[in-house]
Specification:
- The chain has six helices and no strands.
- By secondary structure, the chain is an all-alpha fold.
Length: 205
Amino acid sequence: MSLAAHGFLSPSGVEIAFLLVGLVTFGAALVTVTTKQLVHAALWLVVTLGGLAVEYLLLTAEFIAWVQVLIYLGSVVVLLLFGLMLTKAPIGRSPDADSGNRPVALAVAVVAAVSLVWVVADAFRTTWIDLDGPAQGSTEVTGHFLFRNWVLPFEALSVLLLAALVGAIVLSRKRGATAKNGTAKNSATKNGTAASNSRSGKEQR
């Protein structure tokens, strides 16, 4: 469609829905990185990734939307929740979740966001997607492009996730062994103290 047929002052219903879902997704992302409760952060991450999947659907990229749901919502978030459970993360507020580097992190995030928006806007300045037309991100075309040109990044991501899961299991076992050793030492100390007290009492008698 021509550029003259589009305008920011006359948006369509799909464009308005895209903007509203984007605002909700942005708000959920802010809560994800600012909350001090790790479990709440993981749940808000679900909302963020779900909002991105809806955005892909509105952009007629159905395959990418379902990949977002199956891989990120169905696998990555579940893996994060299992990691939180295996590492015995606190349910309530966690003081360790806060950091004194918030200004630096905020500055880096703003610079990265502005750079990304500028690059995308400059690259696709005159490109328009007919949101009311048929879906352009078909499964055949998108899958052929992704799994032929991006196979190694997908495999590297799977190995990274597996390493994270194994690391969480190792950390949980080390903490359990340390706690058991500490309990055994305390009980041995108490038994030794009780035995020495009983011996001193017998000697006094």
